[in-house]
Design goal:
mainly alpha; 0% strand; flat
């Protein structure tokens, strides 16, 4: 089993209190660039400027992304 993350950063089970940053290899560009964008997003979530969708919406998005990846 692997950890399923919303947009490769947030776990629907945990929510916005923990972000997994740098655990994805982008198709183009580098890990450092991707990690910086993820960190900026997390900072905006922590400041309350951005909110995450509900757990159900995050899980649906993860499932759709997984299907798209496998096909």
């Amino acid at each position: 089993m692997f950890l399923q993350l919303y947009k490769n950063v947030f776990s629907p089970d945990i929510g916005s209190g923990l972000a997994f940053i740098g655990f994805v290899q982008p198709a183009s560009g580098g890990v450092l660039t991707m990690s910086e964008i993820q960190a900026r997003w997390f900072a905006e979530v922590c400041k309350g400027h951005v909110t995450l969708p509900s757990e159900q919406v995050m899980e649906t998005s993860i499932a759709e992304e997984k299907v798209g990846f496998l096909s």
